[in-house]
Write a structure and sequence with these properties.
This protein is an alpha/beta fold. It is 47% helix and 14% strand. Helix 1 (2-25) runs antiparallel to helix 2 (31-57), helix 2 (31-57) crosses helix 4 and helix 9 runs parallel beside helix 10 (254-271). The two termini are 41 Å apart. 38% of the residues are buried. 2-phosphoglycolic acid (PGA) is lined by residues 80, 241, 246-247, 285-288, 306-310. 2-phosphoglycolic acid (PGA) binds at residues 80, 241, 246-247, 285-288, 306-310.
Length: 325
């Protein structure tokens, strides 16, 4: 298929370039120049047309191992590289992850990286690790949204996932933060554009101390419950990330996390439907790492993790291998 396409595109563009260069640009006796220029341009045509397909096709195979307890839901481990990494550093990480051994069959893994490195990851990371964005615009398609990446574009380049509603974006690092309504709207647009969404929610330290953890989580889920259809929920995982645990080294104890996860599932059961509550995956996020993953993932309502710092290291695979076996 690729070879046929190559011959087709290079043939047409070679012919067009030859006519142009030979008759319009170079003196007609300089045929060699025309041929050389035409050849290089026609090869570029091939690259242009097939670059995107190759992003996917070149990904090396990963290996699954059969081990892993089948639970009611498949575990979902998301890596969130945030605004970290350069070409070389990310290349090293890809090499490390590609040689890190098998991923248990009961786990789905996705890495969410800075937009500009998405093509690099799509081209080089093993096929059993999906690639996603860390944010997307609320715009449904192309438009005048300078600096934004639309979910239609993430989908177009080959992403299957996007994180929406991360607390850093809700808070806003020097910009206006994202409201609960905006996060819900983005989630709906991303789903409509064919992506799966890790929808992040969670309370701040003072809110936990004030006993309002579940009120905060509910306020973040309410607009989502209003805007999503039952079918949309198949494409959503809820990432419960207590803000006080993100990047701080403080982790909710497995019991604390389980309690909130159970409350979130109960909330979904009451406010969306019991079937969706049973099916929806709820990930834990906040200083999750190899050392604590096993105990967190052993909890009945913890269906995975959203991992920041540890996903930049080989330790990410300790988290993946922390799923019940
Ligand atoms: P952390 O980040 O694992 O570094 O705490 C988690 C996240 O922000 O998604």
């Amino acid at each position: 298929m690729c070879v046929v396409a190559y011959l087709y595109y290079t043939g047409i563009s070679f012919f067009l370039c030859l006519v142009y260069f030979h008759y319009c640009t170079f003196p007609s006796e300089n045929l060699l120049n025309s041929i050389l220029f035409s050849l290089s341009l026609s090869s570029s045509a091939y690259s242009f047309c097939y670059y995107r397909a190759e992003l996917q096709a070149n990904r090396p195979d990963g290996t699954a191992c059969a081990s892993g307890v089948e639970g009611p839901r498949k575990y979902l481990i998301g890596g969130n590289w945030k605004c970290n990494g350069t070409w070389d550093a990310n290349d090293d990480r890809v090499t490390m992850f590609n040689s890190a051994g098998a991923i248990p069959a009961n786990v789905e893994v996705v890495l969410c990286v800075t937009d500009i490195y998405i093509p690099m990851l799509l081209q080089s990371i093993r096929k059993d690790i999906a690639v996603g964005g860390q944010n997307c615009g609320v715009n449904k398609g192309n438009g005048a949204c300078t600096g934004e990446t639309g979910s239609h574009q993430l989908k177009d380049i080959g992403c299957t996932w996007v994180i929406v509603g991360h607390s850093e974006r809700r808070e806003g690092f020097g910009m206006a933060g994202e409201t609960v309504g905006l996060c819900a709207d983005k989630c709906k647009v991303a789903i409509d554009n064919g992506l799966n969404v890790m929808f992040a929610i969670g309370e701040k330290k003072e809110e936990r101390e004030g006993g309002t953890t579940m009120d905060v989580c509910a306020s973040q889920l309410e607009p989502l419950a209003k805007i999503l259809d039952a079918k949309d929920w198949e494409k959503v995982a809820i990432a419960y990330e207590p803000v006080w645990a993100i990047g701080t080294g403080l982790t909710a104890t497995p019991e604390m996390a389980q309690e909130t996860h159970k409350n979130i599932r109960d909330w979904v059961s009451t406010n969306v439907s019991p079937e969706i509550a049973t099916a929806v995956r709820i990930q834990y996020g906040g200083s999750m790492k190899g050392a604590n993953a096993k105990d967190l993932l052993a909890q009945p309502d913890i269906d995975g993790g959203l991992i920041g710092g540890a996903s930049l290291q080989a330790d990410f695979f300790n988290v993946i291998n922390g799923v019940p076996k």
